[in-house]
Specification:
Structural class: alpha+beta
Number of helices: 4
Radius of gyration: 15 Å
Strand order of the largest sheet: 2-1-5-4-3
Strand content: 15-25%
Number of strands: 5
Shape: globular
Order of helices and strands: EEHEEHEHH
Length: about 140
């Protein structure tokens, strides 16, 4: 058993039940992302599962997932993620607690920055991305 986390486009992180068999895990991922899922690796101890046609189906961009992938890759990812994203351990394994803590920390950092933007707009898109990434990196570094 174990867990996986779903990152919603609003930044909420939801714990998913994680079955013991691969078929059950694939079904949980498919249900959580709302359709066929593509897998990608942004950290060696995790795997992202994203909607395979999220952008084509005009799902909302998942900013917290983009920030998380960018932080883990130590560079700005040049594309977005659309719709809910599921984060698991490698090869559909359970997500370990340290990595789950990083996912939650980044989601919290993104939510706090977005809340600040209600009263203080960023100077531009480049500055907004930089602010999000800096806040997330700070949160992840604080876990160490």
């Amino acid at each position: 058993m174990g867990t996986a986390l779903r990152i919603d486009v609003d930044g909420a992180d939801v714990v998913l039940p994680w079955p013991g068999d691969d078929a059950g895990r694939r079904q949980v991922v498919r249900t959580a992302v709302g359709g066929p899922a593509d897998a990608a690796v942004y950290h060696r101890r995790t795997q992202f599962h994203v909607h395979g046609k999220g952008q084509a189906e005009r799902l909302a961009m998942n900013l917290p997932a983009w920030v998380l992938a960018s932080v883990w890759r130590r560079m700005e990812i040049t594309y977005g993620f659309y719709g809910p994203v599921v984060v698991t351990g490698p090869q559909l394994g359970a997500l370990d607690e340290a990595m789950a803590a990083e996912v939650r920390a980044v989601c919290t950092a993104v939510a706090e920055v977005r809340e600040e933007w209600v009263t203080r707009q960023p100077a531009g898109e480049w500055q907004a991305r930089a602010e999000l990434l800096a806040a997330a990196r700070h949160r992840v570094a604080a876990l160490a």
